[in-house]
Request: fold
Amino acid sequence: MAGFTTAMPTSFKAELPQAIHNFTTTTGHVFKVALGIASPTGTYGAATTNYSNLTGNSDEVPNGSGYTTGGFAFTAAQNTTPSTSGTTAFWTWSVNPNWTSATFATSGTIFYNSSASNQAVYVGSFGGTISVSSGTLTLTLPSNTNTTAILRIA
Amino acid sequence: MLVMVTNGGPHPPETLALNTAMAICPIDEDLAKTDGPRHFKALCLQADIARALIPHHAEVQNGQRNLIKMNGDMVHAIELGVDEGRLTESLRAVQQAALGTPWAEHFQKPEVMNAIVDELHRHFRTNQQIERQWHADRQGA
Reply:
């Protein structure tokens, strides 16, 4: 079924031991957050591999009205170097992605590594359509703990 | 992942504070079905934390607006973030809100305090970044 399902892409799990991604604060890669339209034609979840999956289906929120195609860019300084607790490694970013002067509708997101061929690192569903009008839309990342962080490996 | 929307402008301090409280004090969706009284207490705590954080978010937002007035576009060269005093005071406000609740001790644990401070800092930085972005939008950037 078309749409977004929250998942860690399987390709990302295979890419970690190949050292394709670097989440180190300041010296790591640049990650971006793209938003998908309200009614996408494609299916996004664990099988998603790349930002191009979204653009290839013309499912990204269009450029303009407070959204720039490619999405919100974290700086490398906003990476949070992974931590561990018990047997779980976890990490996040130090700001929440946000869009201002925004007028659009969205239903999901793909986080991807723009320093590594735009490979996907996270897919998120908003559970329905979210609309904003001449305002601000912010994605609040979960707390950076071993049980809640947006990226975790147990 | 929570999604916060404000139509017609930046998020007001009340919305920012509630969002921060929901991140600091997440409530299990199933709690209402398993323990109604505890669910009520958790909702009250979340609301109290939000109320306690409103002045902090308002001061961070106003502080950023003043910084933009003073520095204009050069504000983007200044690193996002708040000082230790702001973080300490807002952590105390969260702990104060938890006093007398079943979670008071939890909020005194060093690892929990560290996690709360990290979360507060992320939300304050986001508040500042949104102000800067609205400023850039008004300049036609």
Q: What stands out?
A: Chain A has a mean pLDDT of 97. Chain A touches chain B through 29 residues (CB under 8 Å). The CA atoms of residues 80 and 92 of chain A lie 6 Å apart. Chain A has two helices and nine strands.
